[in-house]
Amino acid sequence: MVLQIVSSLLFVFSLLQQAPALAPPPQSFRISGTVVDALGGQPLARAQVSIDLQTERDSTLTTTTSDDGRFAFGNLAAGTYALSARRKGYTDQAYKQHESFSTAIIVGPDLHTGDLRFELRPDASVSGQVFDEMNEPVRNAQVMLLHQGLRLGRRAMWTQGQSMTDDQGHYHFGHLPPGTYFVSVTAQPWYAQSVPRQHADPHPAPDLFVETSSGDPALDVTYPVTFFSNATEISAASPITLHPGDAEMANITLRPVPAIHLVIRYSPSSESEQFWVNQITLHVADGVNQYLGVQTTQSGPGAFEIMGLPPGRMSLGLVSSKGNESASGAQTIQRSGDSEIDASDAPPSATVKANEPISRSQTLQLTGDTEINASDAPPSATLSGVITMDDGSPLSGPAFLRLHSVATGAAFDAQSQANGEFSFNGQAIPAGTYGVIIARPPASAVRSMSATGAKVSGRTVEIGASPDVRLSVVISKGSGVVKGFALKDGKPADGVMIVLVPQSPEHNLVLFRRDQSDSDGSFNLRGILPGKYTVVALENGWDLEWFTPSVLQKYLAGGEKVQVNANGKLEVKVNVQQ
Amino acid sequence: MLFGIFLGLLLALSSCVPSAEAPQPASALEAAGAAPLSRVSGHAEQSLQTPTYALRGTVVNSVTSEPVRNALVQLFFAGQRFVLTGPDGTFQFDGLPAVGQVNVMVHKPGYFSPQDVRTSSHSFSQNMRAVTVGPDQPPIVLKLIPEGIISGRISSDGGEPIESLRVHLLSDGIEDGRKVRQELRAVHTNEAGEFRAFDLAPGQYFLFVGPSEAESYPANGPQQGAQGYPAVFYSGSSELASASPIEITPGTHVDINLALSLQPFYRVSGTVSGFPSAEGLNLQFLDPAGQPVGVISDFDPDKGTFRTLPMPPGPYTITAQAQDSKTQRTFFASRSVNLNSDLSGVHLALLPGATIPVNVSVEVTHHDSVELPGGLTRISRQGTTITVQANQVPVRVALVPKDPLLSQMQYGSESTPNAGNDSLAIANVPPGTYTAEIYPNGIYYIQSARSGSTDLLREDLTIAPGGSVQPIQVVVRDDFASLDGKISSNAQADSAVVIVMPEDAPRQSRQVVMNNPKDSFHLSQLAPGAYKVLAVDRLDNFEYKNPDVLRKYLSKARDIALLPDQTASVDLELVRLGD
Fold this sequence. Notes:
The complex is a heterodimer.
Chain A: E1 29-37, E2 48-53, E3 61-64, E4 70-76, E5 79-86, E6 93-94, E7 105-107, E8 116-120, E9 124-131, E10 142-151, E11 154-164, E12 170-176, E13 179-186, E14 221-222, E15 226-227, E16 240-242, E17 247-249, E18 252-253, E19 257-258, E20 260-265, E21 274-285, E22 288-291, E23 295-300, E24 303-309, E25 312-321, E26 358-366, E27 370-373, E28 382-389, E29 400-405, E30 411-415, E31 421-423, E32 432-440, E33 444-452, E34 454-457, E35 460-463, E36 468-477, E37 480-488, E38 491-492, E39 497-502, E40 513-516, E41 522-528, E42 531-538, H1 549-556, E43 560-564, E44 569-577
Chain B: H1 2-14, H2 28-34, H3 37-42, H4 44-49, E1 52-61, E2 72-76, E3 80-84, E4 90-97, E5 100-107, E6 111-112, H5 114-119, E7 129-133, E8 140-146, E9 148-156, E10 166-175, E11 178-188, E12 194-200, E13 203-209, E14 214-216, E15 227-228, E16 232-233, E17 246-248, E18 253-260, E19 263-264, E20 268-273, E21 282-286, E22 292-293, E23 296-300, E24 305-308, E25 314-324, E26 329-339, E27 343-349, E28 351-352, E29 354-363, E30 370-372, E31 376-381, E32 384-389, E33 395-401, E34 411-412, E35 414-415, E36 424-429, E37 432-440, E38 445-451, E39 454-455, E40 461-463, E41 472-477, E42 481-488, E43 496-502, E44 510-514, E45 520-526, E46 529-536, H6 547-554, E47 558-562, E48 567-575
Parallel strand pairs in B: 1-8, 9-18, 20-27, 29-41, 42-48, 46-48
Antiparallel strand pairs in B: 1-4, 2-3, 2-5, 5-7, 6-8, 9-12, 10-11, 10-13, 13-16, 13-17, 14-15, 15-19, 20-24, 21-22, 21-25, 23-24, 25-26, 26-28, 29-36, 30-31, 31-32, 33-34, 33-37, 35-36, 37-40, 38-39, 38-41, 42-45, 43-44, 43-46, 46-47
Helix pairs in contact in B: 1-2
């Protein structure tokens, strides 16, 4: 069962249909069991247990476990129930929960729904204090908890939580699943002042600087992003390994460094042209970026100064816009590890449509004051295109298209017009490979794509040097359903990960579907696009890097091959593999 | 790599730091803190001719008188210098010429400056303190006021902590001379049921927690149905009116423990009718504090039926609002319910808001205006020259809801696009009671403003649901009166405010803010009539629109009668608030 889907359309899997025609009066059924500690196995008293009939909204019922950890719900109608439990000191969980999947309890004649063993995992937490170089607590520091582990079947790092320190410098992250974590802190010294570096302008225009800041350059300092324990690079950070029940402490001391000043030069090609810094993101770790709130001043004609920056790798989103004229862009800059910008490369130009803002994206490794010339950076790809339905029907409303970077996980969104035309105007999309996902209309996905100016493989598009990319995206309402049973030694098996694997899996992440088998071994994969697939059932799939094709390869032979047609409904039995 | 940067900073600074005053090697800041001393050497030539002096002092906690270490003291004189106080709270600036007064400012997280607290203003200039530099200047003492902290723990009556419950902190403030109780901050309880609010200025606070969402739905036992934690005011009341204030004095740390009981929660279901399209429909449940509570779990736009998730018992105001994007009309409905069981069949019928025409009569008695280029008109009278746009509408009327609970919006008069330039109206006003605020433009004063039998200068305007409202008739005249005055004060004051109140229409009061109380003031475009005139030292935290607060000071006000086309004079004594 997929947890977040609450829908009255949820298919009620029923053996009831096989009940005799002369059915006895409605029977009443029972769900009962024991809540136990997942580590020690001891029964847990005073846990709150809830059930929800999936076909009825707001049908929650709760009960509290007795001293021997037992719970029971009686007088239940046949149906599919979500079961969950919570208790102080334990993580709120659905029954046999893995990621966003769990095992639903199917209640009906001849189904055994008593004596369930509900293992509740003790909470783990990370907390600590942040201090400054004077050994005083830092208040209002931003603390990020990074989780390293498996996500969507591959190794990744993501933000598990964010928190602000209190007046004592305390932060706390509770209810954490076990795993490997890092803690990072971003803060400004409370006494810091940003002072524009007037000397950074080689052609000073004295009149512009009459208004001097009251700031003192010696206070122009900042804290670098600091990881537990007191590292300024994630590679030097100490991982925190959390087991269920662990409460780890991670204190961090911040040391100021001179704040970096970044001067961005931009030569407007006309007076009507406007230029601004759209966003600055700091690269904290692979796949984890943080927006920085920074001060920008215009330090002279065509010169912008960004102050208070910590050292590190960051991406700048720069936008220029002009009235009704066309503009031209220049050379590619993708810098990491160097802060000098060489402007001598010949600029290839590209003509951009009138009235459209031009976006540029630059990645910089900042170790000291830096000056860049944004006019030299090429405009990022202007990405536009059209979305059409595969059956020729008109779109029911605006479609939402998302580009998902395969390398960094960064996402870019565009909304189409009613006729399907879309454009990523004003968004700086760095070169790279992106998965194309349709977020609306619901339950639809890319059926096929073609592009000019970029390379398409399956549902991914590789954006390179070409300044003008046009995508043609054909989408299809995913309407196919594959349901069935997971069987182990010929008997239904619950809690098993079911994966619907498309052909060429590496290019078709968006075609994957997953489920977890419910208490009677049944599963239900929905919203499937027409095509050929293999259904595999993996007993220990939750710890598997299933998105790595070589990992999945060895299970495909033991799976069930299916051909799903539009609106097709298939039933399969799949053998569980270890 | 980091080491290299850090070293670089130290090297850069140490080259100009006198070795005798080398900083303790504790931190970049302390190293940096010594740097400005080097600028003294920049003044060396000057200091050969003129002697220089030191400014010494201590930063102390205003409550405990203990020294405050690592506070940033900034001195503003030909730029800025700063030092951090030492472990004993002392600081010293050297090499200052005897310039007389310089400004100093002190900062430290967890503390307020005295100016912060007195004026509730954080403006740069008001945080300064002027000190004298010269021979024989004794050390100065700079006080920092420690913050207040409210922390606590929320638990169930069984002693279990309640997590993720919202804790709201309210405080009273004065806005535009009126007292307003506003939410200052909201924090959440953690796993241990604990919350903590810091950085609190001295003052009076109110605290309430909750409500929670429905926490449980017992399947068996005596209490069936949804249960949750209702909103509770400290120290246990369910209403703001009977809530206990929490007094925060400098440096106080108040710890609050509240135990909450699960209560039955109930659902409301019903129908909404009369909305043009479901897209622009907004349905809200407001608790007595005006906070939106409850979640609509189901809404069927075809039938107009709605149902909420379970919510705490108590009185609610249900409001519905919808916009017709085609006609630009807004529709409203509201009703009160008292929830003490599941409630069904609640019906809200949306009705269009009132559109009130505003008719303005301009009575012109003088013909002394001069047309200027650019569509401007100028008049000079009674020592005042007024330049206005010739085609400006003569008056703007704004309706301000008396009950700020339902809406913070004001409804203002605008030219109606279809009916020509001179036609004004206030459109889409929901039912309710309003105070009319009337602002004349140009050279006019308001002689009268009425809607039917309601005198808008003195009375509130009530709009019934779906009811029509009599047009607002405003009469403005140009034979205004003027007032000249000056303030005498024994004590030194930084600023002064003159409040000019018509005796029979205190709502039409006007104020003049004077940055220098020694200047005289001049106020024109006043309606003729009897006035009370009062000069106070500040408007911050002064609820002057509350007659009970004002009465205290009225004995010090001057009575004066203003006549058309005449200028009166008045001498005022400065009233220091709180004296």
